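Extended Data, panel c. Modelled sequence:
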Amino acid sequence: MAVTYEVPADYGIYTFKSGETIIMSAYMGNAPRLPNTKAALELTSKEADAHVFSSQRDGETRLDVIIAPRDDKRMRLHLFAPYSSAQRSNVAQVLAGLRACLKPSREKMICSAESAWGQQLSEFVDSTRP
């Protein structure tokens, strides 16, 4: 699996790929596109809240995960993935490794060793995952 990062303006876009197939994308900025439905799963931690949305359309599942930091100065993260049942385990794998990171300076990034929500998010997508 590979991850790319682009900064087209005052926001960032991460793209998670397996080979040439896009598994998931993530927008980091102050204006995420929020789904207009009720969250299917809500998770909290001392640093942030996560709202997980899932919908079905044309044989695919659309997953949206909005992570809103409790600190208003930090940007929101919007992970999104339209996926088929064949891609379900890849999406779950990306979510299982999701870590909270702080960037105190341009040169430094500090990421937690464990994923606070990884197991819950991966099980939400793929209930066969441990």
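The first strand starts at residue 2 and ends at 6. This feature is highlighted in the accompanying rendering.
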